[in-house]
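Board notes (copied after class):
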Amino acid sequence: MNNAPAPTSTASHDDLLAQRRSKLDALRAAQPTAYPNDFQPNTTTTQLAEAYADSTKESLEESPTDVFRLAGRVLAYRSFGKLAFLKLQDQYGTLQASLSLNGLGEARFKELEATLDVGDIIGISGRMMRTNKGELTLAAEHAHILVKSLHPLPDKWHGLEDIEQRYRQRYVDLIVNPDVRQVFVTRSKVVSAIRRFLDGKGFLEVETPVLQHQAGGTIARPFDTHHNALDCPLKLRIAPELFLKRLLVGGFEKVYELSRNFRNEGVSTKHNPEFTMLEWYVAYGNRESMMDLMEEMLRTVATEALGTQHFTFGDTEIDLSKPFRRLTMRDALLTMAGLTEDDLADKAPLQAAATRVGTKVDADMTYGEIFQTIFEDKVEPQLIQPTFIMDYPIETSPLTREYPDRPGWTQRAELYIGARECGEFYSELNDADDQRRRLEAQRAKAQKGDAEAMPFDEDFLHALELGMPPAGGIGLGIDRLVMTLTNQPSIRDVLLFPLLKPKA
């Protein structure tokens, strides 16, 4: 048997590396290049498995198949003298292959026996067969090592167990954990399904600047950088909203962007400083039409990406097929947080209520900020099935249309699934004078040291003064949506390469 030693063996990593480098030297001596690029696969593991799933051992012997060329990484290797079996993995799955002295010839067979390790990438040409035990197998007639792996894969019984190591070396994680690969396959399907849905609804996909003179569009702290040639400071965008709204002013009526955004904030299971958002804006839409469109889109996306509108999140089955619940934030506090109408009457009783229910708030918070903080602390964890929470305080919604008859409250909603906020929905503010007052208030906060306050954007105000049509808009966190659809506990589990603190 020629299995490569696992990292848990008595051999040190340096010994294993030396053994593999010795085999690489043998390959360099035996062939023109140790890393050939002249093998072109014409099939995949999945295609072969599906095409011959019903073929018996006898039928394959009586009617030999065509010669197939398959390439992949060796995950397991068992040698029995004149015959060896290996487990071959490509992007699509795994398949058994066999190497034999009779099939390859003595010289090639012995060369592979002497140089092949688990982890190597190999190209095999051969015909399909079944073993005596009935396992579908590609019997090699030609085989060549294409890439020598100089490091052993993690022990197959223990895998790559260190969570941080999995994130730091995602490439290893993807090799040894097929479930991890499937999460990112699903992510790709989700994004593709979103694009097809919106394109089918007449939306135009656009791209707006990542480098900006002012990072606006939401309340968050940006990353700062500097452009040398222009000798001016720049910021990485925190949201594409203000540029997308400029496009509404310019005459586009349905636009969307799948954007990478950057916020200089803490790292947690729900936050990564670099993340993906979907934002769309629709002229003559409003919050309600945006919520309706989102319900339709999520059902379509789940069906295409998962094959169902029901999926497990934690220990709960989430049902996207039913109409999503719609609840005002005020009603949520009254029915789910233990507050009373008297508690909501003014800032003082609300602050006292926060203390009573165990929510920490600061003395300098406004009424609206305390209101929302209690909601996030006490209500959010209860919002498991899809729920739209509506009507947010104006202090936390500087770009959203205010109710004409309810000063201080905006036509904003957020969608919660699995106790996670996944998206925001707005009747957009297009009154330039009102917007100017709100940005002035944000500027005052910035002057007092609030690093997350929204910057004052005179050009955006100029665009609004030209006239932006009444509109509805949304912001949907793609990472959080994928977390929910794939039942992942951390945002790092749906990011191929999450940001980590450098090793000391």
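Comment from the instructor: Residues 157 and 191 are 34 Å apart (CA to CA). The chain has two domains: 13-157, 176-324+386-494.
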